[in-house]
Structures
1.
Amino acid sequence: MTSIAVRNPRTGEIDYEIPSADAAQIATVVADARTAQKAWADGGLEYRTKVLSAWSEALEAHSDAIVAALSVDTARHRISAEEFGALTHFIHGFCEAAPEVLATPFRKLDAHPDVVFKVTYVPYAVVGVISPWNFPLVLSFIDAIPALVAGAAVVIKPSELTPRFIEPLRQSIEAVPALRGIINLVTGGAETGAAIVAQSDAVVFTGSIPTGQKIASAAAKAFIPAFLELGGKDAAVVLAGSDIQRAATSILRSALYNSGQVCYAIERVYAHESLYDALVAELAKQSAEMRRSHAAGDGGHYGPMIFDKQAGIIDAQLKDAVAKGAKIVLGGYSEQVDGALWVDPTIVSNVDHTMTLMTEETFGPIVPVMRFSTDAEGEHLMNDSQFGLSGAVFGPDTHTAGDFATKMEAGGVSINDTELPRVMMFAGEKTAFKMSGMGGSRYGATSIMRYVRKRALLANEGAVASLDKLAE
């Protein structure tokens, strides 16, 4: 079996490795999952929620080891602890919501009083999950948990860049015998992912648009559904009359969270000309107060880049922007210190849409700000993108900003703040627009329904039609 080397983002050293499963090994895992899934589905919802609740308890017993492993791979501690908390939140939330979502009582057909019917839900037997490196734990399970609740078995391939959490997580799963064959963790790179797509009954992918397109094509060839949550280039529009300090703080909280390595991070800002200069100055002022975090609990606000190649992408976008007339107001290019690659909060002015910094995903703590003169121009600019994940609109009041927000071609739009869709995990739904994804909402309790097929059962409680009905 081949292995994959893993880099430590704080030291730059290769100090870990994982095996890379081939197609034959994936076939064995999938076959075992299919065998286990039948009892998992037949056991009923109450059984599944009981088992998942037991796993939540086992997770708590392994929490320190899981968070520690995540912290090494992602060079952050607080957010790693938040990831762990989100996983247990998903388990409890979906288990509580499922009875109502999956309720299937018999009903009468108004047009045919003698006929009653019900819809039953048949889960996909094996759901493949391919997750990214920026939130290794959360994005391995944000889709896997509703699939498990629905009655599917899952085969999960976390990113090969951040895999250290897999072993302590696997130990928590093994502590619950009923999960054997139901939650399957595999390691590997692109070939492993391709084998999962080829052999699953449905696939979920979170990651870049180019990889998502390859997975969608492979899923179509295998004739299975693909649920894709792809890249973002979220826009923030700051209308005339906005509270500049509020807008700057909200934008930076989104743009700098996890060092900007977030699909829904604000990556482009459009400011009305009446407040453009003041907003750029406020963004720079607040960013200048942010500090590097060299160790857990040291008071720093951001860590080094997780993926070393991302620093090169950021530098290339900044160089392209500067060459075309942009001005770096604060921050700048990546810096290597003792093997770690740092990108400080960077504010860029005088940008336009000829620059890749404004049109391609950056995935770093960079805030480019472009001015606009009219609302019509602002609307055009915010929608002039292949991305449509989410975004934000700031205005003098909720009504003004809210009216403008309805024009944004994105799945979740925050008003006078950023990242608000994060708080509606079970309460609401949103879908990605444009190239940012497809396949229904992963938000809302009804996301469970992505992992089932509907079977209609109909019963005639009256007389059957006579053969005279055949007469012409």
Note: The CA atoms of residues 101 and 112 lie 26 Å apart.
2.
Amino acid sequence: MVERTWDAQSYHRVSGPMVEMARDVLDRLPLRGDETVLDAGCGSGLVTELLCERLPSGRVVAVDADPAMVEKAREHLRDRADVRLVDLVELEMDEPFDAIFSTATFHWIPDHDRLFARLFAALRPGGRLVAQCGGRGNLERLLAAADQVAEREPYASHIAHLSRRGNFPDPGSTTRRLAAAGFVDIDCRLVGRIVTPDDAHEYLTTINLGRQVQALPDGLAPRYVDDVIAVLGEPVEIDYVRLDIDAVRPA
């Protein structure tokens, strides 16, 4: 249920901050090195590559709902991971996983009740979910600037109607949804992080403002991003609030 398409080549170039945040998440996942792990939302494969390094005798299945991302991940990872085109809310696997790892993905999915039910079903008893996504308060300053510019012409007739928010839940509601899906040992918490991208224009175009950019005529899209940057001021600082998720399927 991803609501947008992605420029996988650009994402691969500019997603260094996503990779750095993912390193912290991966550090929370205890691995012997021989497990079978699902990367739920693999993007272009850069974070999946880090996961593969932790599993020298194991196996990684990496899934994403965007065809361009899957193509890029296959190109990047080659035979290091089994990369598949899969929508997480329709996840059906023929093998149970020892762990599910995910970063920067769940906030693109509106239905977290169904998402957590599918992830629970994909884990073996005793399997662990370790994830991070956008949480309550994520990108507030950036999205306010994007809204401010979207209300101006010539942009308003194209994008003023767009909902600016992803699904950025709080720890309490996520804990309740995980418990309803059957998970135990649940720990959800918010973590703030400021990112200053090297190329703010490409980063915002590809990652944070993709829906708006895709809804604008080609000639207006770069101007829109420039105007958002002008409101934010330079250097551009992106105000991430991430929701860390740890949970276990009961043994």
Note: Strands lie at 36-40, 59-64, 82-85, 97-103, 123-134, 184-195, 238-248.
3.
Amino acid sequence: MNLPNSITLIRICSIPLLIWILSSNHFSSQHGAKELLASAIFIAASMTDGIDGYLARKRGQITTMGMLLDPLADKLLVSAAYIVLVAYNPRIVPPWIAVVVIGREFLVSGLRSIAATEGFTIEASEIGKLKTVIQIVSVVAAILAHRWDYWLWFPSFHSGFVIAVHLIAVTAIYWMTIVSIISAVDYFVGFWKKIDHASERARRRVVLSRKAKPSQPSPERPSHIS
């Protein structure tokens, strides 16, 4: 087990911990300890997504196990977060948004699996990277909005700065949903173009192989001597 794969496993192990913190009564919400701890765990787990990939490329430790675990860990983390948020903060995350987000993750995973069997890959687009960033912000904001509607920072400095946590959470959730749909369409268009090219190349190879194959002469009939 190399270091990048170990970090990926840590991300997977953080999922039940996140679910337990948000769904249990062992943490008091009076001072926001539960929300702050859950947000810190989700941010740390999300950061490991970039760390394990960077280390795998830098150390030359890209393995089949890592290629399997990394996207699986991402999908599990996102799906678990939104499923828990539907119950934890339904005024911010209605069920249909969780269905859209999780459905998008399964769609992209399916397209990538088909692409791998056909011998090509679908690279992550800039829209997909933007979706990941907004996704992290939306989950953290939705968790914090369960306890706070507003944050007052630096109250001694000219009345402080007011951060509308609830407004940020709602905006990030719906903006993330829109970007997720656009990203899914972008992945599907890219997949469709490449699958057409792959099918065309396969047809050309079949045609060329048939042309290159020499014709078999028909066996001569033995002559009868009269």
Note: The first strand starts at residue 151 and ends at 153.
4.
Amino acid sequence: MSSSIGSVMSNSYYGVTSDFFSTSLSGSSTSYLSDYSSINNGSYYKLMRSYYGGSSAAGSLVDSSKTSTTVAADKINAISVRDEATKLRDSATKLLENGSKSLFEKSTVKDAEGNETQAYDMDSIYKSVSSFVKDYNSLIVSAGDSSNHSVLSSATLMTGNTKANVSLLSSVGIKVNSDNTLSLDEDEFKAADGSSVKSLFNGTGSYGYGVTSKASQIYNQSVSQLAQYNGNLYSSTGNYNYNYTDSLFSSFQ
């Protein structure tokens, strides 16, 4: 896999071969300057993407099966890890919110006899925890396929933290599976003590706080990985990186 990435970075980039940069400019400087300008402003990337069509699995990447540039599986995985880490970070952060936005603010409820009590809205909390579990599992699967040691290390630490809280998770209907994913039992969860759920997912130092931290770390690591695969010529969003203008295209100035 690394050899194919090396080939992409050394021979061509979105159809621009090394010959483009080594060919003499005599008699055709206007043409090359025009080509350089299209690369510089990002229009060349957009043109190639439009012509060949985008890969649904890779998002902003050009479909490797239709171009001379081979898109490495590692790069596709890094995009998946980045996106799944974003989802988990967001769902975990929602459970961490305090004040008026907190899911763990008690509200007044009445029983069949009209008696009023303060209780957690377990239906709303369940929906958010269910999203958390779904996003957690998706990231575990994507990170497990990563070849990036930093991502694997962070994911391992995250699952280790989950195992360290297995008893507390079990008490609220969340089971840690043998493949490190989670499963959530709705009936057990809604029958659990709301305060126990809050202690797990809300507050600095909670289990949810730890997962948020690791998800953010994995996000940063995957973005860094994508920048390396892109050779810093284009960012992970397809924007041109002007840091390379002077060194790479100095002969055009």
Note: Strands lie at 12-13, 16-17, 107-110, 116-119, 174-176, 182-184.
